[in-house]
Design brief:
alpha/beta; about 25% strand; 6-stranded mixed beta sheet; Metallo-beta-lactamase, Chain A; about 290 residues
């Protein structure tokens, strides 16, 4: 099995992992889930996290051929368009992003002409679709549950599982966002856990319980043996009971209502108004306080 070189990048304010993986033979690579920084107090966006990734790519001599998002993120803005501008590589996400766009277009009451066809990305991946990064084969696995549109990228022996699995001591990711589903998440996890035990699993977040250092990688075998929500191979009903009970205690992500307005646009700000500035909308009283 081919083995890409994977470089993780930690965005501490949002607890997010971003990745660059590349083929060491051809030096072609891809960026996964890059973060555009946002300060909610001032409303300012900035590129500190993205600049760190860009410096690594240039210093290592990696030719980026894909900019990949796993889903429209609820906890950070996507820096995919910024990287496309800097590096010229195409952006991509799973094809079911159109369902997320339609859902949130209604929640935000966006104009009728807001496109919900996924045209904000250069390519929409279907389940099972394959592509190459250098000589590394990459397979797309549709992985709904956390969102309607989530996908996993399996690049050689490395699986970028976004917000499905977390590190084993944190379990799995929440499934209570609009149109999320713990039962769909369970089915997605079964597909991921069916990969070879030695497959490296790279997670989208780590909140470092018990004060440990933030971590980003485990293996399929370790997840099956040690994940606190999956060890012992629980039934779907057992898993859903644990996941749903946990989700009922969680507050919404702090940046969700801001981030999804950006991310259903492929990481772009809303069109500027007549004063040249972009604005975000907050749907008051749509979500219940937790």
């Amino acid at each position: 099995m081919s083995r890409p070189v994977v470089k993780p990048f930690w965005d501490q304010p949002t607890g997010s992992w971003q990745y660059v993986f590349h083929d060491p033979e051809t030096m072609e690579g891809a960026i996964v889930d890059p973060v555009l920084n946002f300060d909610p107090l001032s409303g300012s966006t900035f590129t500190d996290s993205a600049e760190e990734i860009l410096a690594h790519v240039r210093e290592a001599g990696i030719e980026i051929v894909r900019i990949l998002d796993t889903h429209p993120h609820a906890d950070h803005f996507s820096a995919a368009p910024w990287f496309k501008e800097k590096l010229g590589a195409p952006t991509a996400i799973g094809e079911h992003v159109v369902k997320v766009q339609k859902l949130w277009k209604e929640i935000y009451n966006l104009p009728e002409d807001f496109p919900t066809d996924g045209s904000q990305w250069d390519h929409l991946f279907a389940d099972g679709e394959e592509f190459m990064v250098g000589r590394i084969p990459v397979r797309v696995i549709f992985s709904p549950g956390h969102t309607l549109a989530s996908v996993t990228y399996v690049a050689g022996d490395a699986a970028f599982v976004h917000d499905t699995l977390m590190m084993p001591d944190s379990g799995t990711s929440r499934a209570d966002f609009p149109s999320g589903s713990s039962s769909e998440l369970y089915q997605s996890l079964q597909r991921i856990l069916a990969l070879p035990d030695e497959t490296r699993v790279f997670v989208g977040h780590d909140y470092a319980p018990e004060g440990r250092e933030a971590e980003c990688m485990s293996t399929v075998g370790t997840q099956k043996a040690q994940n606190i929500h999956l060890a012992g191979a629980p039934s779907q009903a057992e898993f859903c009971a644990v996941r749903d009970a946990r989700d009922a205690t969680l507050a919404l992500p702090k940046l969700m209502l801001a981030a999804l307005q950006i991310n259903i646009r492929g990481g772009r700000k809303p069109q500027p108004e007549n004063n040249g500035r972009s604005y975000l909308k907050i749907p008051l009283d749509y979500f219940e306080r937790r």
